[in-house]
Design a protein that fits this description.
single chain, 408 residues, alpha/beta, D-Amino Acid Oxidase, Chain A, domain 2
């Protein structure tokens, strides 16, 4: 490792690795080092992701970023010579009557922006998801009341949505970078950054846990849920740190129900935000626990599945009571408190510090667009492909949040 680089990227997840590639692909001539403390790239949040992508968003920035990313990912295997499991199986959001009225009003925006969508009736939903019962008449009335079930009024289906493997994409980004830019782009594993060093309001390098200091013309923070810790260790007070919390999210793998046709279902979002998709012969099921507080604990809990997911699944899709959990894991969302959207761009108060953090539940799917945008900003001085300024850090102080209505 050299004593200094023009740019240092902290974090080798799908965000950091894609930034490294994009800097070089955009023509950044200087030296760049990506520092990752793990034994391998993309083994943290990026590996724990469901890897789902959707272009169904209420906010323009999320819609643009995911649309661009989906297009990019669709040819990734050919462009980067690595399989990433890209599969456009579709996404189906189901809605109770009240939110459904609002969602229908987005249809014209989707049409105008070229995002393909279909509004589905309850019968259509039942045809698309075998065994699902859109109404509530098949349930016991006391269960309907206790669990606050309502009949599904409609569904929003996006045929271009799907999923991919973010860790494989991270590997693809790095392998191609090393093939094409080996002399000026370095990747260093098992290197932990202890803090970012500043001088006269400018980032000037990083201090490593082994005590070594590496100089840098600029520092890109892509350390996922640990980004806030790192800024705190670098001397940032709470009021100037990122307004982001690490929050545990869990995924469960079960056998599919004994109902024909599950291999053809889209990713489906049902009651209480429970979502599931077919995954190589199994079902992958998740639900963001609204009671989960901030913290770095990541252990998955079978009790959570049994209490908060399974019973609701089996009411909505009789037969799923025979879906047994085969494996499970937890990982950390980086949840931006105010609006659950990423923070991208130059830090307004510290020259040479760039932020790519706080992606909540959609960092994998926007990584291609977000990293390209940041590279454009650094290399060309402004955004070229997508105007990512709505994600600027300053939006919190300016109270100009990215309001997103379509969330799970
Ligand atoms: C259960 C779950 C399901 C999800 N599902 C989806 C989904 O379906 N679709 C989607 O788009 N997103 C999803 N996400 C979110 C998505 O996975 C993340 O937004 C994305 O992976 C963030 O990538 P990252 O590179 O910022 O973070 P990470 O992958 O966590 O990478 C950060 C890296 O920084 C390294 N690091 C940290 N501190 C230091 C340090 N001091 N020095 C050196 N290295 C350091 C870490 O080791 C890590 O490798 C999900 C997340 C979880 C947990």
């Amino acid at each position: 490792m050299r004593d200094s680089y023009d740019l240092v990227i902290i974090g080798g997840g799908v965000i950091g690795t894609s930034i490294l590639w994009n800097l070089k692909a955009q023509g950044f001539k200087g030296s760049v080092a990506l520092l990752e403390r793990g034994d391998a790239l993309a083994e943290e949040t990026s590996a724990k992701s469901a890897g789902a992508f959707r272009n169904l968003w209420g906010s323009r920035i999320n819609m643009e970023m995911s649309t661009h990313s989906i297009r990019f990912l669709s040819t990734f295997e050919k462009d980067f010579a690595i399989p990433i499991g890209f599969h456009q199986h579709g996404y189906l959001f189901t809605f109770y009557p009240e939110p459904w009225e609002k969602i229908k009003s987005y249809k014209s925006t989707f049409d105008e922006t070229g995002v393909r969508t279909e509004l589905l009736s309850p019968d259509d939903i039942e045809r698309m998801v075998p065994g699902l019962k859109a109404g509530v008449n098949h349930m016991e009335p006391d269960i309907v009341e206790f669990a606050e079930f309502q009949p599904m009024a409609g569904g929003l289906y996006g045929p271009d949505c799907g999923s991919f493997d973010p860790s494989a994409a991270a590997k693809g980004y790095i392998e191609r970078t090393q093939r094409e830019f080996a002399d000026s782009a370095e990747v260093h594993l098992r290197i932990e950054v202890k803090r970012i060093e500043f001088e006269a309001g400018k980032a000037k390098g990083v201090e490593l846990s082994n005590g070594r200091c590496i100089g840098a013309g600029g520092v890109i923070l892509a350390a996922g849920p640990w980004s806030m810790q790192l800024l705190a260790a670098s001397g940032f007070h709470d009021d100037e740190n990122l307004p982001v919390d690490p929050i545990k999210r869990q995924l469960f793998i079960t056998n599919p129900p004994d109902i024909p046709g599950y291999e053809r279902i889209p990713l489906v979002i049902i009651d209480r935000g429970i979502y599931f998709k077919y995954e190589t012969g199994n079902l992958q099921i998740g639900r963001a626990d609204p009671e989960q507080g901030p913290g770095f604990e990541q252990e998955a809990s079978l009790a959570y599945y049994k209490d908060e997911i399974g019973p609701y699944m089996q009411e909505r899709i009789p037969g799923t009571e025979h879906c047994n959990v085969k494996s499970m894991w937890g990982g950390l969302y980086s949840v931006t408190r105010a609006d659950h959207n990423g923070i991208l761009g130059a830090h307004p108060a510290y020259d040479g510090l760039y932020l790519a953090c706080g992606w909540s539940g959609h960092g994998a799917m926007v990584a291609p667009a977000a990293s390209q945008a940041l590279a454009e900003l650094i290399v060309h001085g402004s955004y070229k492909t997508i105007d990512a300024s709505p994600l600027r850090f300053e939006r919190f102080a300016e109270d100009d949040l990215v309001v997103e209505e379509i969330v799970i």
